[in-house]
Design goal:
Blueprint lengths: L4 H11 L3 H10 L4 H10 L15 E9 L4 E9 L2 H4 L2 H17 L11 H17 L4 H19 L5 E2 L2 E5 H12 L4 E9 L7
């Protein structure tokens, strides 16, 4: 089987091994990508350990203070390498996310993070509102689901519309950055503080 430049490039991107080492690995593995990766690992040549399985543990922790010291945000955004973490594009992305959190007050990163008791409480409130409006039970359930979707879009950072471009969600913003950098990028955690808010908020 002929080893193409594209195959070598793909293996190099996955392992960060040298071009000649990647070509040799593919030749030994007769073009089998996984076997070539294993060969490089066995030889100690796969310097960037298993990119396809790699966790995003590098990145930045950024602090943002808004409104003359009335709102503060601390956010951790992770990528795979310090090379990407040091780029202006990544710094801009993290600052945009901090600004988003300050302005739009998300409570969670994604809907899977919302505790079940919070979801139950929201559903109960929406159901009571629909019934109070005189909606039949079957219609009320559809209304509850519609209002829950609206709740997710307000409460979850990834589902919010980006304040700099309301045609793009934060999740889409992250996916665009992942495509550009070729690395996994995740919002790990954040904290938002607003002067005078109660601790229970």
């Amino acid at each position: 089987m002929g080893i193409t430049t594209a195959m070598v490039k793909e293996l190099r991107e996955a392992t960060a091994a040298g071009i000649l080492d990647c070509r040799k690995a593919l030749e030994v593995a007769e073009g089998d990508f996984e076997k070539a990766v294993d060969y490089l690992r066995e030889k100690g040549l796969a310097k960037a350990a298993k990119r396809m399985d790699r966790e995003a543990k590098d990145g930045l922790v950024t602090a943002y203070v808004h409104g003359g010291g009335r709102i503060g945000v601390l956010v951790e955004v992770n990528c795979e390498t310090d090379f990407v973490a040091r780029t202006d594009e990544f710094h801009t992305l993290v600052n945009d996310i901090a600004l988003q959190i300050a302005a739009m007050h998300p409570r969670y990163i994604k809907r899977e993070d919302i505790p079940e008791n919070v979801l139950e409480r929201e559903r109960a409130v929406f159901r009571a509102q629909a019934l109070e409006e005189g909606k039949p039970e079957a219609v009320a359930e559809r209304i509850v689901e519609g209002r829950m979707e609206k709740f997710y879009k307000e409460a979850c950072l990834l589902e919010q519309e980006f304040i700099r471009n309301d045609e793009q969600t934060i999740e889409a913003l992250l996916k665009a950055a992942i495509t550009t950098t070729g690395e996994n990028i995740i919002v790990r955690r954040f904290a938002r503080f607003e002067l005078g808010e109660s601790l229970g908020e």
